[in-house]
Amino acid sequence: MAGRGLSSKVWKVLPSTIALVLGAILSNLGEIRQAWRGEETVSETVSGYRPTGDFRTEFEIYLALSGARANAEHSKETLMESTKDLLAERHSQEEVAALIQEASDEAVILDKKLSDLTLSLYEKYYTVGEIQHLNRFYSTQTMRDMLKKEQQISAELAPETVRLIDEFSQRYVEKALPIVMGAFEGEVPTLELLCGLLGENGLIQ
Could you tell me the residue range of the domain that residue 134 belongs to? Predict the structure, then answer.
């Protein structure tokens, strides 16, 4: 029973991890679009970047140069640390360690699937030449300086974001649990029935 309880908690943690990772990877799309509008040209020296011609390699370089990978890793670390603190209030150290390890193992698999999916989408909409252009863009001193500041901002914003999400989740569960328990006494509701019930009570759209 304890193992099953831990598994259910893992699936509460992983969606947030996936969302944070995906948000970090796609966080620079605004700059990407602006780079291709061509409304204004700014000339700067590109340093430290050598084009390879291979799409996957260029994509990995893009994730590194744009700060997407660093943001994703930092977001996951912040989430894990916050989760540890929350679980420690109600569970033993052994239970917390087991949950975090299980979530970390699952996250490795999900990260690989997410990376492959993101790569395929970039290959669908970008040529290797366009990715190389973006890598040159992120290799300028202006962009390097901007990314350093963005990472500092993200580092300060992440803990507060996790706290607000946790507060929202707790309020939501407190409202939803009595409704569910009262409507399905001794029964396991289907997802369709559960969503319908929460929708009737204004808890989901």
Answer: 2-156
Residue 199 counted as domain residue:
no
Phi, psi of 140 (to 5 degrees): -80, 160
Structure tokens at 150: 């963005």
Closest CA to 162 of 84, 108, 92: 84
Helices (H), 38-140: 55-65, 68-88, 93-125, 128-138
- Is 26 part of any domain? yes
Residue 46 phi, psi dihedral angles, 5° rounding: -95, 130
**Per-residue pLDDT tens over the stretch 50-100:** 999 899 999 999 999 988 888 788 777 877 787 787 788 788 888 888 888
- The neighbour count for residue 155, using CB atoms within 10 Å, is 13
